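Example 379.
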Amino acid sequence: MSVVSEVKTVRPRQLVLEMPEYHPPLAGREALRLDFNENTAAPSPRVMERLRQITAEGLTKYPEREPVERIVAAHFALRSDQVLLTNGVDEAIHLMCCAFLDEGDEALICTPTFFMYDVNITMMTRGLVKVQADETLSFPFERFLAAITERTKLIIVASPNNPTGAVVSRERLLAIANAAPHAVLMVDEAYHHFGGESVMGDLAATPNVIVARTFSKAYGLANLRIGMLAGSAELLKYLRKVSSPYNVNGVALDCLSAAISDETYLAWYVEQVRVGRERMMAGLDELGVGYFPSAANFVLMKIGPKHKELVAAMRRHGVLLRDRSTDPGCDGYVRITIGVEDHVTRGLEALKASLDEIGWKRVSGSAGQPVSEGVREFE
Ligand code: PMP
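Predicted structure in complex with 4'-deoxy-4'-aminopyridoxal-5'-phosphate:
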């Protein structure tokens, strides 16, 4: 018998065996979707108009990314070799890890944060270093800086962060980049439109920074899967090398140029969220529910031991929330997305009724207080 026929099972790479899996709870979402931080209404009407112009012949063609990259680059006052369009920021994270991480390299993140960093880093290296926020959940700046070593190759910081909504100031982000000139700092600005400072204007002066943006949130295009990376042409060259030339489909590319042309729509949606977020936080204050003051299109609420009951009760009221209890340091926390005015109203009404139904009581001390009192400036 040959050696080949004795091999009984196919094994993936060892790191693939060891890496965690991410299964977002996508089933049964026919309700008010306040669970995934999506736009809760619709994208710009210009996108729907563009969709109607798609032809059968158009669908037979491979997509051409480059002309839209030129439009997007001009929109952000960058050169087109400084922009790579991606299949959502999810793919952008994957490409960053493929391009910059060798096995054994260290990659630095804070926790709690977006779980896809963990998934993609551990796919490439065992060197994932996590710096846990303290109970205030704000960004652990000093300890984060101290965690940078000579082996650090990739640093990822989301600002505003998910699931907390905490921002990291531009000054601090640049300090991190400057403390690690041998590493790439990816600043994930998925929620940038809703608050916080951008480092997009610092790319020329800080060549080891790459900014990620998504069109899934404020622009309302989550289903089309489109995001981008922006940075120095030199770093972008490596990212382009590891990406498929057809990573973004042509429908998404067509719709993207329509979406970014409509600044009035974007400003309207962002304002809906800003006003709604204030209403939600005021409503939570009234109910005595603690929360992290958010700069994003969601608020992380501190519910305590009844977190599962609340999510179930809200579902009965036709509103979906996301239980974040298993995130590090987030036991008892539930996240609610902020959408357009009517959806915030429905979310708040359902919340009041559900808290009543489950017999939730304002707990004196931590659970009845804003999680980070006095940090409304988010730092
Ligand atoms: N970054 C953060 C911080 C997120 O919360 C999310 C989505 N939940 C993403 C990136 C992924 O965005 P996209 O839809 O562009 O893949």
